[in-house]
Structure formats: C-alpha cells, structure tokens
Amino acid sequence: MHGRLFPGLVILTTAISVGCGGARVGSNRTSDGITPVAAGELAASPRTLNFGQVAVGTAKGQSVTLTAGDASITVRSAAWSGEGYSVSGIVFPTTIPAGQSAHLSVTFAPQSAGSAPGNIEFVSNAENTPQVAFSGHGTQKPVHSVTLTWHPPAGAVVGYNVYRGTAAKGPYTKITGSPEPNVTFTDALVVGSETYFYVATAVYEDGNESKTSNRVQVTIPNS
C-alpha cells in the first residue's frame, strides 16, 4: 500500500437495520376512562394486545387489568396460548374485591421470526369467562452495516481496496475481494458494540496502489 497520494476516505453512514413497529393497544374503556363491568362478571382490559414487531432474543411486555363487578371474584387460573408469550405479576388463585382491580403482565419474547397470535382466558367464579387476544411478529435481530465513500484521485484508477482493522494501528485486513470499481463500499460483516477502523487505497491501471487514505473510526451500536 504505497505510491501516489489518495485524497481521503470519509464516512457516509453507519446504517442500522432494526425491526420496529408500533404497539397500539386496544381498549374496552368508555370515554371517561372507566371500564364497565356487568353485575357478577369479571372484565379484562384491554381485550387485545398488539406487541408489533419484536426482535428475536428480546422481549416486550404489556399490562392487563382484571376488574370485578358488584361482587368479589375469585380468579382460579389462567390458560394462555401462543408461541413466545408468558404471564407474570399475579398469583392464582386470587380474589378481587367488588369494584376493585388486579394487574398482570403479558410478555412477548419471540424465539423465531414470523407472526405469533395468541390469547389468554381467565377461569373464575364469575358469570363470564373473559379473554384477551395477543398479536405480535418476531423479527430477526438487528443487522448492522458501515457504508464508506471517498473522493476519486486523479489518474487512471481501476478500482479501490478497502482495509479494516480492530485497532487504530492495525493490523488491517483487505475486505474487498477485488478492487471496488465504485467510490462507495458497504461492510455488512460488523458486530454490535465493536469498534472498527478503515483505510482505503486506489488501484491504478499499472497495478500500483496509492498510499492509504486517512483513517476513519466507527463504533457499532449494541442494538
């Protein structure tokens, strides 16, 4: 890596692809914020939980409120279905006094990518059997990449070599299999929370490489 001057390498972007999605929660509340509960019944609110997109290996939780009507309700158990869902924050059996509420958490921790419907049903001495439906979508873990760009030097350039290291003083390894013909290059083989250093050279028609460009440093986010 020696020879003619190379005008410099500059970072364009550090691109992170992350699954994302809103989690809009349905509700059975009235306009004044009070959940209506019929006499002798048990209400579960909200009736639907939408977890949106959640990356595999991570978890997202939402809360559910159980409210008794005009009489105490004993909730004996709960049965839930759906891959990746779990329930916490409540111990069965539990008694909810008349007009009072109990709270629990539903967590979605997908183990694979794809849609994951589910639901939970509460077994009690109430006249009804309330249910809450779940929806969520597992996505692959975030993929990181670093995109580099540079100014072309004068002369008959056939391409560019990009070198990467994990320490400022090297060693550096060439990550372009053959000279890159464009003035931009994307390195998709990077790992979250790691720091990388890059330099580049120009390759001329006579086969000579320029001196290395200025060094750039990129720290990859952990998520």
Could you characterize what this model shows?
Strands 3, 5, 7, 9, 10 and 11 form a 6-stranded mixed β-sheet that branches. Strand 13 (157-165) and strand 14 form a beta hairpin. The protein has strands at residues 9-17, 42-45, 48-55, 60-68, 73-81, 85-88, 94-96, 101-108, 114-115, 118-124, 131-139, 143-150, 157-165, 173-174, 184-187, 195-204, 216-219. The chain contains no helices and 17 strands. It folds into 2 domains: 9-17 and 142-219, Immunoglobulin-like; 42-139, Immunoglobulin-like (Sandwich), CATH 2.60.40.10. It is mainly β and 223 residues long. It is rod-shaped, with a radius of gyration of 29 Å.
Binned, the helix content reads under 10%
Q: Got a strand count?
A: 17
The CATH class of the largest domain is identified as Mainly Beta
Number of domains: 2
